[in-house]
C-alpha cells in the first residue's frame, strides 16, 4: 500500500466510500420503504375492518355478515387476506381462512384498533389489525372482537421488489460518483504533477527556481525548495572559489619548483632536475584539471555551444598538426545541435578526445553527433587504432574510476570532468577496430536568439 500512487490511493478510498455510503443508503431506504408499506397496509386493514363491522346484522337472532368486503382475496382459500369475528363462543370468518382460527389478543380496550404479528394458516406471519367492539342494542349489544389480517410476506416482497428496482439506479449513481471523484482527484493532484515537472526542469537547467505560482497548500514546499537551491548555490560558489583559489595558489610554488629544477640542471644535477620537473608537471596537470572543472561548473548553467561549429574548428586545427595531417577525418555531425556547455569547454573536451584519437589512429577518425533516445547529444570519435586493453578499459569506465590513471593520459579525465560538469558524461568502448569515445551532453533549451536555424 505504501508504494501505491496518491492518485490510486485516493481513487480507491473514494470508490470504497461511495460504495459504503450508497450501501447504507440502500439499506436505510429499504427499511423506510418497508415501514411506509406496513403503515399503509395497517391503514387499509383498518378500512377493511370498518367495512366488516358495517356489514354485520342479526337474522333470526344470529349475528351474521350480510355484506362481504369487496376484495376478492377474502373469498379465496388462503388468499392472503382474512377477516374474523369472535362473538362469545361463535366465530365468523372469511372463506379465505377456511377452518383456521386467528389467534386472539386479550385486553385490547373497547373501540381501539391494535396491530400485531401473528401466525397465519400456512405458518407464515400475518399483520393483524384487531378491535374489540360493543355492538349496539339493535345488534344485540354483545361484545365482539373483530380482526382483519394480511400475509406479512407480501409486505416483505414489496420491500425486496423496491430494493431490486432501486439497485440499478444506485449502481449508476455509484459509477457517476466514482468517476466524478476520480476527476476531482486528478484535478486536485495536478499541482503535484506540475511540481515534479518543475523539479525536472530545475535538474535539466531549463528553470532556475520553483517560483510562487502554486496553490496555497503547495507553495510552502516550493518556497523551501527555492531556499534549499539558493543555499546550495551559495555553498557551491564558495567551494568553487576555494578550489579556484587553491589551484591558482599552487601555480607560484610550481613555478618556483620549475625554477629550482632549472638551477639544478645548470649545476649539473640533471637527474634531480628531471625528477623535480616530472613531479611539477604532474602537479601542474592536476591544477589545470581543477581549474577546468571549476570554470566549467561556474559557467554551465547558462552556457550554449554549437556542436558542429566546435567540431569543425577543432578538426581544422588538428589537420594542420603532424599527427593529424595524414588522417582521414570523417565528420557526420548533425547541424543545429546546441549543447548546454561553454563553447571553450566543449572545444577543450572534444579537443582532448580528438588529440588522443590522432595519436592512436592508423588512417581514419570518424566523428558523429546526434540526439539519442535518452535526450542527450551523443558526440563520438571513433579511431582505427589499437584501442585500450580490456582490463584497463573496464577500470576507466567503472563508476568512480579515475580517468587520469593509466596510459590514456590526463586528456580523458579532463574531457570527462567537463562533460560531467555540464550534466553529461564520457563513455569509452572498444569497437574491435579501434576506440570509440563518446561525449554525452545535455542539449541547451531552445529559443535562444543566438541559436542557428534548424537544419
From TrEMBL:
<dbReference type="InterPro" id="IPR004358">
    <property type="entry name" value="Sig_transdc_His_kin-like_C"/>
</dbReference>
<dbReference type="GO" id="GO:0005886">
    <property type="term" value="C:plasma membrane"/>
</dbReference>
<keyword id="KW-0472">Membrane</keyword>
<dbReference type="GO" id="GO:0000160">
    <property type="term" value="P:phosphorelay signal transduction system"/>
</dbReference>
<keyword id="KW-0812">Transmembrane</keyword>
<keyword id="KW-1133">Transmembrane helix</keyword>
<dbReference type="InterPro" id="IPR050428">
    <property type="entry name" value="TCS_sensor_his_kinase"/>
</dbReference>
<keyword id="KW-0808">Transferase</keyword>
<dbReference type="InterPro" id="IPR003594">
    <property type="entry name" value="HATPase_dom"/>
</dbReference>
<feature type="domain" description="Histidine kinase">
    <location>
        <begin position="245"/>
        <end position="445"/>
    </location>
</feature>
<protein>
    <recommendedName>
        <fullName>histidine kinase</fullName>
        <ecNumber>2.7.13.3</ecNumber>
    </recommendedName>
</protein>
<dbReference type="GO" id="GO:0004673">
    <property type="term" value="F:protein histidine kinase activity"/>
</dbReference>
<dbReference type="InterPro" id="IPR036890">
    <property type="entry name" value="HATPase_C_sf"/>
</dbReference>
<feature type="transmembrane region" description="Helical">
    <location>
        <begin position="166"/>
        <end position="189"/>
    </location>
</feature>
<keyword id="KW-0597">Phosphoprotein</keyword>
<dbReference type="Pfam" id="PF02518">
    <property type="entry name" value="HATPase_c"/>
</dbReference>
<dbReference type="InterPro" id="IPR005467">
    <property type="entry name" value="His_kinase_dom"/>
</dbReference>
<keyword id="KW-0418">Kinase</keyword>
Amino acid at each position: 500500500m505504501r508504494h501505491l500512487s496518491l492518485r490510486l490511493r485516493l481513487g480507491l478510498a473514494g470508490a470504497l466510500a461511495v460504495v459504503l455510503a450508497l450501501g447504507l443508503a440502500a439499506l436505510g431506504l429499504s427499511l423506510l420503504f418497508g415501514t411506509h408499506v406496513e403503515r399503509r397496509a395497517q391503514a387499509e386493514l383498518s378500512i377493511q375492518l370498518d367495512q366488516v363491522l358495517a356489514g354485520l346484522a342479526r337474522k333470526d337472532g344470529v349475528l351474521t355478515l350480510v355484506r362481504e368486503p369487496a376484495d376478492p382475496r377474502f373469498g379465496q382459500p388462503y388468499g392472503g387476506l382474512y377477516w374474523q369475528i369472535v362473538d362469545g363462543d361463535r366465530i365468523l370468518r372469511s372463506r379465505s381462512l377456511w377452518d383456521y382460527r386467528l389467534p386472539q389478543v386479550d385486553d385490547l380496550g373497547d373501540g381501539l384498533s391494535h396491530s400485531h404479528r401473528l401466525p397465519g394458516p400456512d405458518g407464515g406471519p400475518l399483520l393483524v389489525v384487531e378491535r374489540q367492539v360493543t355492538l349496539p342494542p339493535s345488534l344485540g349489544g354483545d361484545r365482539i372482537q373483530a380482526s382483519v389480517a394480511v400475509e406479512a410476506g407480501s409486505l416483505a416482497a414489496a420491500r425486496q421488489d423496491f430494493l431490486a428496482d432501486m439497485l440499478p439506479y444506485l449502481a449508476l449513481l455509484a459509477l457517476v460518483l466514482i468517476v466524478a471523484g476520480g476527476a476531482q482527484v486528478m484535478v486536485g493532484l495536478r499541482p503535484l504533477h506540475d511540481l515534479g515537472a518543475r523539479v525536472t526542469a530545475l535538474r535539466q537547467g531549463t528553470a532556475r527556481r520553483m517560483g510562487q505560482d502554486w496553490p496555497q497548500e503547495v507553495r510552502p514546499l516550493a518556497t523551501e525548495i527555492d531556499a534549499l537551491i539558493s543555499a546550495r548555490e551559495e555553498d557551491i560558489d564558495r567551494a568553487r572559489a576555494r578550489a579556484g583559489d587553491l589551484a591558482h595558489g599552487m601555480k607560484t610554488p610550481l613555478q618556483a619548483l620549475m625554477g629550482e629544477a632549472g638551477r639544478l640542471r645548470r649545476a649539473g644535477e640533471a637527474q634531480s632536475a628531471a625528477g623535480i620537473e616530472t613531479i611539477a608537471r604532474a602537479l601542474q596537470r592536476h591544477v589545470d584539471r581543477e581549474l577546468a572543472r571549476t570554470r566549467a561548473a561556474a559557467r554551465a548553467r547558462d552556457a550554449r555551444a554549437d556542436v558542429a561549429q566546435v567540431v569543425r574548428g577543432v578538426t581544422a586545427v588538428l589537420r594542420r598538426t603532424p599527427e593529424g595531417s595524414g588522417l582521414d577525418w570523417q565528420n557526420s555531425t548533425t547541424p543545429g545541435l546546441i549543447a548546454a556547455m561553454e563553447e571553450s569547454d566543449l572545444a577543450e573536451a572534444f579537443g582532448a578526445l580528438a588529440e588522443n584519437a590522432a595519436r592512436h589512429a592508423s588512417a581514419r577518425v570518424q566523428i558523429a553527433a546526434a540526439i539519442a533516445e535518452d535526450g542527450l547529444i551523443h558526440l563520438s570519435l571513433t579511431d582505427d587504432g589499437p584501442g585500450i586493453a580490456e582490463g584497463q578499459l573496464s577500470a576507466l569506465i567503472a563508476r568512480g574510476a579515475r580517468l587520469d590513471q593509466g596510459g590514456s593520459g590526463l586528456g580523458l579525465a579532463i574531457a570527462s570532468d567537463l562533460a560531467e560538469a555540464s550534466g553529461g558524461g564520457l563513455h569509452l568502448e572498444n569497437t574491435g577496430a579501434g576506440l570509440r569515445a563518446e561525449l554525452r551532453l545535455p542539449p541547451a533549451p531552445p529559443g535562444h536568439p543566438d541559436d542557428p536555424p534548424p537544419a
